[in-house]
């Protein structure tokens, strides 16, 4: 992620191999004697850094979700600008089930995405949210049959890259600013925002 320059790409799609996006951290590893507090600290720092990079790089970031998107996997996906899922995907916050608390930003990003009450309900109960419900509550952008997911994302990417990439990059920075401020502060932030000098040349996807 660190090696992605501002003009190397217009859109980055975050996906994984296999049937599931991520079922979260392997708790067997987390409870083993080799997973020392120092290793745990570094692991969490790197995860938090990855999520912040997804939020702050100028490229539009899209999470492509199939199957389970649980706990740590959900925390990472929440760092993306858009999230598309197969209609059989499931979303869940299992921290309370395994006696942990979120440390990668879920307690802040999830309420921003779906509202405080719904976030509390997901976290307190640990219940699984279907792709259809995830669309309805604003957790994800869209859900389609699994065999149509690639085409749905391709369609979104084509629509994004048809626009001016430097405008999209500035929108991304402004939207992030709005999430980090109250309304009045956000309006002042938008008015005072100075667009970075971005090279205005045509780029590929």
Walk me through this protein's architecture.
There is one protein chain. The protein has 205 residues and is an alpha/beta fold. The chain has one domain: 2-enoyl-CoA Hydratase, Chain A, domain 1 (Alpha-Beta Complex). Helices cover 45% and strands 13% of the residues. It has 9 helices and 7 strands. A 4-stranded parallel sheet has the order 1-2-4-7. It has a 3-stranded mixed sheet with strand order 3-5-6. α4 packs across α5 and α8 runs antiparallel to α9. Mean pLDDT is 86; it is low at 201-205.
What helical percentage do the residues reach? 40-55%
User: What's the CATH topology name?
Assistant: 2-enoyl-CoA Hydratase, Chain A, domain 1
Along the chain, the helix and strand elements come as EHHEEHEEHHEHEHHH
Mean pLDDT: 86
- Radius of gyration over all CA atoms, rounded: 18 Å
Most strands sheet = 4 strands, parallel
Strand content: 5-15%
Oligomer: single chain
Q: Report the CATH superfamily.
A: 2-enoyl-CoA Hydratase, Chain A, domain 1
Number of helices: 9
Q: Would you identify the CATH architecture?
A: Alpha-Beta Complex
Give the count of structural domains: 1
Estimate the global geometry from the Cα principal axes: globular
Tell me the distance between the termini: 16 Å
Provide the spatial order of strands within the biggest beta sheet.
Answer: 1-2-4-7
Low-pLDDT segments, ≥5 res: 201-205
Structural class: alpha/beta
Q: What is the class in the CATH system?
A: Alpha Beta
The total of beta strands comes to 7
């Amino acid at each position: 992620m660190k090696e992605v320059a501002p003009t190397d790409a217009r859109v980055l799609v975050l996906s994984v191999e296999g049937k599931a996006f991520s079922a979260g951290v392997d708790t067997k590893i987390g409870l083993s004697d080799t997973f020392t507090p120092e290793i745990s600290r570094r692991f969490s720092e790197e995860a938090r850094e990855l999520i912040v990079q997804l939020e702050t790089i100028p490229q539009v970031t899209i999470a492509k979700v199939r199957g389970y998107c649980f706990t740590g996997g959900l925390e990472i996906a929440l760092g993306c600008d858009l999230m598309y899922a197969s209609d059989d995907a499931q979303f869940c916050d299992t921290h309370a089930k395994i006696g942990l608390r979120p440390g990668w930003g879920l307690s802040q990003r999830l309420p921003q995405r779906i509202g405080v009450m719904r976030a509390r309900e997901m976290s307190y109960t640990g219940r699984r949210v279907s792709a259809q419900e995830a669309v309805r509550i604003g957790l994800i952008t869209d859900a389609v049959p699994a065999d149509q997911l690639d085409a749905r994302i391709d369609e979104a990417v084509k629509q994004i890259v048809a626009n001016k990439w430097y405008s999209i990059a500035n929108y991304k920075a402004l939207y992030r600013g709005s999430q980090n401020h109250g309304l009045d502060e956000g309006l002042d932030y938008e008015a005072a925002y100075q667009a970075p000098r971005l090279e205005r040349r045509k780029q590929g996807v």
